[in-house]
Amino acid sequence: MSMAAATPAADTIFRRNLASFMANRLAMAAAVVVVLFVVMAAFAPWLAPQDPYETDLFRRLQPPAWVEGGEWGFLLGCDALGRDIFSRIIYGARISIFVGVTVIVLATGIGIIAGLASGYLRGWVDVIISRIVDILLGFPYLIFAIGLMAMMGPGLGNIILALAYKEWVIPARVVRGETLAVRELEYVEAARALGASPRHIMLREILPNILSPVVVVSTIRMANVIILEASLSFLGLGVQPPMASWGSMVSDGRAFILEAWWVSTFPGLAILLLVLAINVASQGLRDAFDPRFHE
pLDDT tens track of the chain, all 295 residues? Predict the structure, then answer.
């Protein structure tokens, strides 16, 4: 009976929070921008007007279409190898979004397991996990990722591992704090009194009730991961040529910034727009779904 009553109540709360998020026009506009980037990445082969890897030295540093010497078939101009910048930005969205989503999913999964174990089991488990988290937080994120990439070598798989290696500590700290706050509540005590195993209590009783802030934090962190991926690619430690990456595209245009500003500017604007949209949408999610902001 109580479970039947709890389901409509939970559904009502979710609907109310979703309505609150949709009422936030700025957050909804940002969410639409993020969705557009995802669609652009998913349908890149059909949306890109040119082959992003085809070189044409006759079009070297060709300006955007609205500048003298430009062509509408190459809307944002061409880079130093004559490749279409607009098409490469569309394909570069695949890398940024794929790395961001993969790192966040992997890191959040590890962080949830570590945070639940640390906050519920306590004792030596909590001590070991907490010390590992403290050590990893002591290193600047970008410097840490650069060191790992220098050891493992560049590549898409390695950049995901390098970023996830430290990213998991953020959700782990959030989950640990939330678990400590609910582990002594009545419903957890009741499950423990009925003989439920620690695994059942952590995954079935505690996790569903602390998942909302974890999802919000992970969404916010995705913007940071995208910036880090672009930074590593800018330094030549991320995705390698000829694969299109926004960070490497910005790096490619450094030598021509005065004579061909479009080579670096447009991929840089793509990074700015996507990261800003994710941050604004994440703030809207936090305000709508985190109960602490409803007080």
Answer: 344 444 445 456 667 777 777 888 898 999 999 999 999 999 999 999 999 999 988 989 999 989 888 899 899 999 999 999 999 999 999 999 999 999 999 999 999 999 999 988 888 998 999 999 989 888 888 888 888 888 888 888 889 999 998 899 999 999 999 898 888 888 888 888 888 888 888 888 888 888 878 888 888 899 999 999 999 989 888 888 888 899 999 998 888 888 889 999 999 999 999 999 999 998 888 777 765 544 4
Domains of the chain, earliest start first? 33-281 (1.10.3720.10)
Rounded to 10 degrees, the C-alpha dihedral 159/161/166/170 comes to: 100
**How far apart, in whole angstroms, are the C-alpha atoms of residue 77 and residue 82?**
9
Helix (H) or strand (E) holding 155: none
Does the model's pTM come out above 0.70?
yes
Beta-bridge mates of residue 226: none
Length of the chain: 295
Q: How far is CA 235 from CA 176, 257, 277, in A?
A: 35, 17, 25
Dist. CA 273–CA 258, nearest whole Å = 23
Q: For residue 242, give Cα distances in angstroms to 19, 53, 264.
A: 44, 7, 16
Contact by Cβ (8 Å): 263, 177: no
- Where does residue 192 rank: exposed (0-12), middle (13-18), buried (19+ CB within 10 A)? middle
> Phi and psi dihedrals of 239, rounded to 5?
-65, 135
Please give the Cα distance from 51 to 49 (Å, whole number).
7
CA angle 157, 226, 62 (to 5 degrees): 95
Q: If residue 79 lies in a helix (H) or strand (E), which one and from where to where?
A: none
Could you tell me what percentage of the chain is helix, strand and coil, using 3-state DSSP and rounding each to the nearest 5? Answer: 75, 0, 25
Which residues sit opposite 78 in a β-bridge?
Answer: 84
Residue 74: how many CB atoms within 10 A of its CB? Answer: 22
